[in-house]
């Protein structure tokens, strides 16, 4: 990114839930994956990464471990023409349990 002179990046990662399941058969394997993919970037103020995780296909143990390696966790729920986001982990205690509701227009 330095070659492009970009000072801040946002990465959106889809399908990481499948990678987690493939590499979570042992605690050591999961730790290696998280140590390679997430931990090196914690605290990097020049980057934000958003992981979308399908919690239906990831074990509770894996989700708990993943949450330990993140600074903020949002739970997303979809209902009719609305998206609900709830903060379930945040480095700022004032954000904990806050909810965001987004209305989706019918024409979309």
Sequence stretches where pLDDT stays below 50 over 5 or more residues: none
Query: What portion of residues belong to β-strands?
Result: 25-35%
Helical/strand content category: alpha+beta
Task: Output the helix-strand order.
Answer: EHHEHEEE
Distance between the termini: 34 Å
- Give a count of the beta strands, DSSP E runs of length 2 or more: 5
Silhouette: globular
Mean pLDDT: 87
Query: Helix count, per DSSP?
Result: 3
Give, in spatial order, the strands making up the sheet with the most strands.
3-4-5
Helix content: 25-40%
Radius of gyration: 16 Å
Structural description of this entry:
The structure is a single chain. The protein is an alpha+beta fold and 108 residues long. The chain is built from three helices and five strands, in the order βααβαβββ. The longest helix is centred in the N-terminal third of the chain and has 11 residues. The relative contact order is 0.14. The mean pLDDT is 87.
SSE layout and pairings?
Layout (H helix, E strand, L loop, with lengths): L8 E5 L2 H7 L4 H11 L9 E5 L8 H9 L3 E8 L2 E9 L8 E5 L5
Parallel strand pairs: 1-2
Antiparallel strand pairs: 3-4, 4-5
Question: In a few lines, what is going on in this structure?
Answer:
Helix content is 25%, strand content 30%. The chain is built from 3 helices and 5 strands.
